[in-house]
């Protein structure tokens, strides 16, 4: 988190009209997962839901399922006729996400796939309205390039964890993921194929619109 914890608490308390499912899944993820802090909180889930709604997205690709919070957020956002495909490399997470989401009717809009996300993307001929990237940080550039191929013109890519606990702003920090994300952020800012902005929501989200 980039913001002070008191601000995070305040923001969480002022999320309007968020499905109770987001809060329930957040709490279950904290109880059941060693790295429960990696799950999108209620505010971020609501943000993802709203992005899908505002874009009028009907087909979303979710890269990095974990416990399924982002996939569920998009399932709410795409509506009854929408579809969400979520990709997860870790079989344990893939199984757990399906179990955790089965109580929510909106999960019927989600297709769960287990395996290498990049290979799935390279082999896919689908066209998406929105693609969310929240998986291995060292693969972000590869995911991004593959996402641009699968994304419609005017579509949106959202990338999570781009501030990496604030370390990207410190050039003396040479930790592997900090360096990778710093380079990735610079590439996006200079990429003439897209329009982009970084938001300081939780650990940083980049919104990228394909021209």
Layout of helices and strands, plus pairs?
Blueprint: H1 5-13, H2 20-32, H3 42-55, E1 59-63, H4 69-78, E2 83-88, H5 91-101, E3 110-114, H6 117-123, E4 128-133, H7 140-150, E5 151-160, H8 176-190, E6 194-199, E7 205-210
Parallel strand pairs: 1-2, 1-4, 2-3, 4-5
Antiparallel strand pairs: 5-7, 6-7
What does this structure look like?
41% of the residues are buried. Helix 7 (140-150) links the parallel strand 4 (128-133) and strand 5 (151-160). The protein is globular and about 45 Å long. The chain is built from eight helices and seven strands. A seven-stranded mixed beta sheet has the order 3-2-1-4-5-7-6, with helices on both faces. By secondary structure, the protein is an alpha/beta fold. Helix content is 43%, strand content 21%. The longest helix is centred in the last third of the chain and has 15 residues, at 176-190. The two termini are 30 Å apart. It has helices at residues 5-13, 20-32, 42-55, 69-78, 91-101, 117-123, 140-150, 176-190; strands at 59-63, 83-88, 110-114, 128-133, 151-160, 194-199, 205-210. It has a single domain (5-210), classed as Rossmann fold, CATH 3.40.50.
Arithmetic mean pLDDT: 93
Identify the CATH homologous superfamily: Vaccinia Virus protein VP39
Compute the CA-based radius of gyration: 16 Å
Cα end-to-end separation: 30 Å
Strand content: 15-25%
Write down the oligomeric state: single chain
Main β-sheet, in a few words?
7 strands, mixed
Q: Report the CATH C-level class.
A: Alpha Beta
* Order of adjacent strands in the largest pleated sheet: 3-2-1-4-5-7-6
User: In which range does the helix fraction lie?
Assistant: 40-55%
